[in-house]
Amino acid sequence: MLCEQCGQRPATVHYTEIVQGKKNEYHLCEVCASQKGQAAYQALAGPFSVNQLLSGLLHFDSSVAPRSDAPAPRCEHCGLTFQQFVKMGQFGCEHCYETFSEQLGPLLKRVQSADHHTGKIPKRRGGAMTLRRELSQLRKELQLSVLEERFEEAAQLRDRIRSLEQQIGSDA
Amino acid sequence: MSLSDFLSQASSKWLRDEGPESDIVISSRVRIARNLTGYVFPLIASESDKQAVLQTVEKAVEQPQVKQLGHFEILKMNDLSPVEQAVLVEKHLVSPALIESSGSAVILRDDEELGVMVNEEDHLRMQCLLPGYQLDAAYALADRLDDALETSLDYAFDETKGYLTACPTNVGTGMRASVMVHLPALVLTGSIQRILSAVTHVGLAVRGIYGEGTDALGNLFQISNQITLGQSEQEILSNLHGVVKQIIDHERTARQHLLQQSKDPIEDRVCRSFGILAYARQIDSKEAMQRLSDVRLGIDLGIIKGVSANILKELMVATQPGFLQKYYGHEMNPGERDVKRASLIRERLRMDQVQS
């Protein structure tokens, strides 16, 4: 039997494909089969990306999926709906994080280790944020030093916290 | 033009230079995603939005703080031919997605170690790519570029969510740090699966550089951080360091094991692959990558002498379709490319004085 695609080489690959209940049989040579196989696989799987993986997660996550009776949230800045986000796996603008924060929470817990940024802060725009983060760090250290009865250190920490608080207060 | 001239002109610094631990770590890369406040993200942006972003970024690159870091040149994707675009992707300087995106550009430093993709998935994606194991240096450089650009750009940033990115898998630090490692001995000894699945359990991701999943062409793997929110940049880097160091140790142990336990089969494999590369008249990219990996292992184990160790890194890029077409100066179908690929590899091998 010759390959039914090219009609030149002998058919060595025989396979049956069932798509939506419809059965097709193919008899191909190795060259045509590998071309067809790749095309079929790519059509089925599509180009794989993180975004698709993400939207997959969202589809299967009932805690994230919007209830049908609730109005679908839409970002008023860029017009993106939650359904569109689920489909694309990407936000439309910076404000989407606020708009969809409720739905985003469970997702972030899943794909990230926590829901709070602890890394770099922009130098020029983030001055007050840097101070606030330092403040919360100092408060933690203060608690620890009191617990461990290192009172001298605690007093120093308390003074630094006070001066930071004043600094933040005067900035605001 | 001779091949050696072509390679030295057309290749990036990370491809030419050797770096620390370069017997195993091919390259280190840090990528930082940033967006400008007040503009919608590229995916839904209009052409004029994208132009506005591009112009803003171009102006920011003109700032003295950025100029201190070196001379940058802007390449707009629209102005490039498909072959030129392919070469940029093959050199790992831009992502395939950048070429797909309209109104996109890359701003590259002359040595091509530092760059910014504009209007990819995010407005800005800074990238630092260094040879060998230099993760900290790569982050330091990318971080300096980030600071320099921030002197004139307003980033989308939120106190709790960090740097806001188009995809929530990048939010927070916006940083993706990765190393490309060559692990032939772990693949040959069959321990790779166990190690790779362990790696994915500690918040890191592994993928083959070319090819799909764990069926990595040329035994090249990329290990990167998966998590961007809830860990600081330093924590992410030290996590990655911890794992990469262990993988390096495992690979070295496996190489010694191979040399002691299966000296004859491994020498045979390496030398056969060398013979094929030196004499083949046509070779597809899959086989080329595997043979190059074998030869590189042979060089590292001292089986092959006189061939530069850089050959794997250099040829894994130079034998890609875009590079081949650029070197030979015309478009080719896959069959023609296999012939030219074999010829380029032979030519490259003749540049070194081989003894084995």
From TrEMBL, chain A:
Gene3D superfamilies: UVR domain. Keywords: Coiled coil. It comes from the Bacteria. The keyword Nucleus does not apply. One of its GO terms (biological process) is stress response to copper ion. Pfam families: UVR (PF02151). Signal peptide: none annotated. Transmembrane segments: none annotated. One of its GO terms (molecular function) is cobalt ion binding. Residues 128-167 form a coiled coil. Residues 132-167 form the UVR domain. PANTHER family: PROTEIN-ARGININE KINASE ACTIVATOR PROTEIN (PTHR38430:SF1). This is UVR domain-containing protein. It comes from Sulfoacidibacillus thermotolerans.
UniProtKB/TrEMBL annotation, chain B:
GO terms for cellular component: extracellular space. ATP binds at residues 27-31, 92, 125, 176-180, 207-212. It holds the Pfam family ATP-gua_Ptrans. GO terms for molecular function: ATP binding; creatine kinase activity; protein arginine kinase activity. Residues 24-254 form the Phosphagen kinase C-terminal domain. One of its GO terms (biological process) is phosphocreatine biosynthetic process. Appears to be allosterically activated by the binding of pArg-containing polypeptides to the pArg-binding pocket localized in the C-terminal domain of McsB. Its EC number is 2.7.14.1. Keywords: Allosteric enzyme, ATP-binding, Kinase, Nucleotide-binding, Transferase. A motif (RDXXRA motif of the pArg binding pocket involved in allosteric regulation) lies at residues 337-342. It catalyses: L-arginyl-[protein] + ATP = N(omega)-phospho-L-arginyl-[protein] + ADP + H(+). Catalyzes the specific phosphorylation of arginine residues in proteins. PANTHER family: ARGININE KINASE 1-RELATED, ARGININE OR CREATINE KINASE. NCBIfam families: PRK01059.1-4, PRK01059.1-5. Belongs to the ATP:guanido phosphotransferase family. This is Protein-arginine kinase. It comes from Sulfoacidibacillus thermotolerans (Acidibacillus sulfuroxidans).
